[in-house]
Amino acid sequence: MADILEHSALLVLQQHYKVPFFPIGPFHKMATATSTSFLEEDRSCIARLDKQASNSVLYISLGSIACVDEEEMTETAWGLANSGIPFLWVVRSDSVNEKQHWHFPEGFRALVGERGLIVKWAPQKEVLAHRAVGGFWSHCGWNSTFESICEGVPMICRPHFGDQLMNARYLTYVWKVGLNIENVLDRESMETTIRRLMLGIEGKEMRKRILDIKEKVEAGMLKGGSAYESLNDLTEFITSFLAG
């Protein structure tokens, strides 16, 4: 997958280090597992997604570690509510900094009604692969980024720390399959970003681009594809030491 997403950077590294490179993956597609989550997944959300139109639902998850402050959480809730877009929102019990429990703003649940589903944790790979999911609001961790690209789901980027910042820049400026939120403490900015991704021309263009990347990734895993051949090359490279 790296040879597709980071081809130019990979060439520079190969020229600089002069050692064998084996760009393989995505691993979660090459060696699938039932679940790799440390948190209990609420699979009831899949049945709810089954009832939604294709590409109509926004999935929101900031991963298992990232937290936000109370103000951002409240503005996020109103941004989602005011957007009019169906959503599946993962809200961990520790999603808000220094709080074990955060209460949704008054009137939020009544306004959202059946349009919004909130769970403590979701089977993310299955959610992203679902036909109803048309966007992913993410912290842009590398696993989440890979999983979203592999399922052809464009992203709203809300990075927090570490590699998430760089991943978000790649998503928005290099691969052009993601949108940044201009102001995470402003519900109108959030609402606008959601609607741009889910309903706007930008979102449609991003969906086309990310589906093209998805097809290239899938082709790379087939016999004769780049990832397939790189895995064979790695196997032969390792066994060559045993033979010697």
UniProtKB/TrEMBL annotation:
Mention any Pfam family matching this sequence.
UDPGT
Gene3D superfamilies reported for this sequence: Glycogen Phosphorylase B (3.40.50.2000)
Q: Which organism is it from?
A: Cinchona calisaya
| CDD domains in alphabetical order | GT1_Gtf-like
| Family, per entry | Belongs to the UDP-glycosyltransferase family.
Q: Which GO terms describe its molecular function?
A: UDP-glucosyltransferase activity
Know the name of this protein? UDP-glucose iridoid glucosyltransferase-like
**What is this organism's lineage?**
Eukaryota, Viridiplantae, Streptophyta, Embryophyta, Tracheophyta
Keyword Transferase listed? The answer is yes
Matching SUPFAM superfamilies, A to Z? UDP-Glycosyltransferase/glycogen phosphorylase
Superkingdom classification of source: Eukaryota
